[in-house]
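ok trying this again, last paste got cut off
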Amino acid sequence: MQTIGICRFSYPGDGGFQVEHATLQERMDYLYASARMAERFATFETMTLPPLMAQSDDDFTLLIVIGESLPARYVDRLHAAVEHMPQAVIRAYPPAPHRKIMQEAINTVRRFDGDACLQFRMDDDDAVACSYIERLREAAQDVLPMAAKHRHIAIDFNQGFIARPSARGLDVAPTNTPYTTAALALMFQPDLPLSVMNFAHMKVGQKMPTVTFSGQDMLIRGHNDYNDSRQKPGIKAPRLTPLDASGKAHFKATYAIDADAVAAAFAALSSD
C-alpha cells in the first residue's frame, strides 16, 4: 500500500495559513526572512528528518513542496539535507490555491496502482516515531475491510509530545489530542484523486470514519514562535518542562532525535 507523507516547506500558497498577509510579497517576506528560515532548517534537520531516515519500514515517499520563489541558498540546503534520503522528493510550484497545488503535487508521486493509498502530513518541525510507517501499514490492514465501503478513512495515532526546541535542548509536554498532525493519516480508495491536504486535520471526524490508536508514543508536534496556529491572540501555551536524561534516552530510542544535537543547532543560531 503506497504511503506518502507531505511537508510544505515555506510554500507561499493562497490559503493554508491561519494568519493571512495583505499581499503575496508580504507572505514571502515573512516566510523567507533569514531568522525564520534558519530556525526552520534547524528543526527540520534535527527533529523532522532523523526519524524519517530511521524508519523500520522505509517504503514510503516524503514529498517536500516548496515555492519556485524559494531563494537558491535555501533550495541548495534543502537538497543537501535529504541527499541521503531516497524517499525524499522535492517539488517546486508557483503561488496558487493551496489545496489545489497540494493535491496536484501528491498526485505526481502517487502510483494509482489499484491499491488504497495512505497519506500523512507534517510541518517542518513535526516528527513521527521510527516505527510509524510500519505501524500505519499494520493499522491499514486492520481497517481494510472498512475501506471498501468508504471513500476515505482516518487512521489516527494520537499519543506523543509537544516539543519546543532551543539552545537548552527540548522542553516537552505529553499530548493525546485526537487528529493531531503528523501521525494522522488518511486512507484513500484506489482511484480517488483527493489528498490529505484537502481536509482540515482537526475536522476529519466530521468528514469520514476514524480509527484512533493510543498507548504508544508516535508523534511530536513542534512548538515555536513561528507556528501559524499560535500567532492569533487567545492561544494558550502548553506547560512544557525540560527533557531529563530518561526523556532524552526515550526521544533517541523512539524518534532518533538527539536532544543535545537540537541544543547545538539552536545555540548556533543565537551565535550567528
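PB: full thing came through this time. The radius of gyration is 18 Å.
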